Amino acid sequence: MRVYVPLTLSGLAAAHAGGEVGPGPLTAYAVTPGLREWYVSDDIEELEYAALSRAAAASLRLIAGNPDEPRRRIVVAVDVPDGAATADPDHGLSAASLGEVRIAAALPLAKAAAVHVDADEAEKDVAAAAALGAADLGDDDAQFTVDGAEDHELLWFGVQEIPQLIG
Fold first, then answer.
1. Which of 18, 22, 86, 167 is the most buried (most CB within 10 A)?
2. Rounded to whole angstroms, how far apart are CA atoms 158 and 89?
3. What are phi and psi of 20, to 5 degrees?
4. 26, 106 Cβ separation under 8 angstroms
5. Spatial separation of the C-alpha atoms in residues 29 and 99, rounded to whole Å
6. How confident is the model at residue 162, as a pLDDT?
7. Rounded Cα–Cα distance for residues 16 and 148 (Å)
8. Would you give the end-to-end CA distance of the chain in angstroms?
9. Can the peptide bond before residue 67 be classed as cis, meaning omega within 30 degrees of 0?
10. For residues 60 and 54, what is the distance between their CA atoms, to the nearest angstrom?
11. What is the DSSP annotation of the chain?
12. Rounded distance between C-alpha atoms, residue 163 and residue 73, angstroms
């Protein structure tokens, strides 16, 4: 199963230094039954993109909570054994937790398939999306700003490129 772990740039640097994403328990995003039902698609690539997008939104929340963090969303895609990621059935259809899974232990960075990162030109919109809290409370103007950040596609990088990303 592929999971998408939201991080910040400093979190990616720590994962690279330690050789693992963690410590556990971790919150990640994956194709869960709730996400399948919400997205109404059988196309696994579309479903995985939806899970990646949910992780990118979670990365934005991590950034919004730390004013010193560089304004670039980071998501690490990691393949884990089936059963390593569990969805909370009580939150399975909650809009706030669609695709959310828990992973009990740290994940070896060597198992990562890719790292997804905002391009430089997204930085301004990601910085403006620090209004995320107001958007979560229903502020339409704040949501518009958040949507502007989400309009930027994350770039794909191989794990071997992490040193250049954090350098």
1. 22
2. 33
3. -155, 155
4. yes
5. 5
6. 96
7. 29
8. 30
9. no
10. 10
11. -EEEEEE-HHHHHHHHHHTEE-SSSEEEE---HHHHHHHT---HHHHHHHHHHHHHHHHHHHHHT-TTS-S--EEEEEE--TTSEE--TTTTT-GGGTTEEEESS-EEGGGEEEEEE--GGGHHHHHHGGGHHHHHTT-HHHHHHHHHHHTSPPEEE-GGGHHHHH-
12. 16
The whole-angstrom separation of Cα 122 and Cα 71 is 8
Predicted pLDDT at 122: 86
Residue at token pair 């556990």: 24
Q: Which residues of the chain have pLDDT under 50?
A: 92
| Unique residue bearing structure tokens 């690279």 | 16
Nearest CA to 37 out of 47, 27, 24, 45 is that of 47
In the block, which residue shows the tokens 């995320």? Answer: 132
CA 114/CA 67 separation, integer angstroms = 26
d(C-alpha 51, C-alpha 39), whole Å: 10
In angstroms, the CA 130 to CA 136 distance is 11
Query: What is the distance between the alpha carbons of residues 115 and 83, in angstroms, rounded to a whole number?
Result: 22
Q: Position 59: which residue type? A: S
